[in-house]
Amino acid sequence: MKKSIITVLVVLIxxxxxxxxxxxxxxxxxxxGIQKIYVDQESKEREVTFLSDVxxxxxxxxxxxxxxxxxxxxxxxxxxxxxxxxxxxxxxMVEPDGETRMSQEFMCHSNLNIxxxxxxxxxxxxxxxxxDRMFTLSQGxxxxxxxxxxxxxxxxxxxxxxxxxxxxxxxxxxxxxTRHKIKIKYVRDSDLQTPMVPLMKIFSNSLKRLDxxxxxxxNLESADEERHGAGCLLxxxxxxxxxRDDLERRYTAHWIVKPGREVNSTLVxxxxxxxxxxxxxxxxxHLHPFAESLELRDLTTGKTxxxxxxxxxxxxxxxxxxxxxxxxxxxxxxxxxQYQLISSYNNTTDEDHDSMAVIYMYAQDREFRKPNxxxxxxxxVSPSSNNSGGGM
Length: 392
Fold this sequence. Notes:
This protein is mainly beta and 392 residues long.
């Protein structure tokens, strides 16, 4: 695995450098690739562009098996820590020139991580366990853009870890060069005219149970199907990563989907760990090819919270589109309710394929308090070593 460290310098230049899209180019730091920083003169939103290393694809690579790199970076090297709000994250596959867009079928994923223990300490967050992953983009969804006025807070000294990875599901004799073009959008708190609505991440995976004799309800010893829905199907893991619940039962979040159609249900109440009643303002979905849909159901009300439909590529293996949700009005989610995640796959080939199903929800953090930026000076906020590498 290749690693590099990038510090993005924020140096404003005059308004005479305005581009056609009303951005001011601030700086270019060509280390691991080409980095550009722009500032929207009206919203003061900053857009930082990164290029990954160039990947050479010569073999077939299934999900999480292809070449990847991890880059550690900070959004600012300001001597005085300041509060920043991340408002968007995007990724696309481009040719080595860094500009020419190419087929997105070579996208495995782009992950943006943070050192969650440090972050939770800085912001006195009660999220347990701490969540390292801020964003994951993969086939079918290449951008997260929060509604205007919403963002995820970080302090400027906090280090981010960016992992990009490629795959190749369609070409046995390949000779392809490609790279990821990443954009991170953020706003300085000091530039805001009105307060930002703080977002926190709540997520869960669909699971397959690996123990044949168990009932397949994550962290639940005695299940009532009328109240808790159907349990996880028995499955086979793609890799060696095993998830154990508090009852020492074994599950996998990366399973084999056999030829044909399967519908798998997972009780995710204890994975979500909703800390209090709040509203979801953005939902991103991670699925693999042959997915049909992923649905979050509120078992307490009997209603669907959100259902994402997936559009598969025609004539080859891949995902073209995956539905997402974005709204300033928001969807309610409740601490005391039971929730179920239902994934649907239809493997139309005669071979086994791998599958995952993950829901990432960004909900209003109703307990958010601005931290004292000076606290960052006493902490070691060097780039995190707890990123997930090539995995999800």
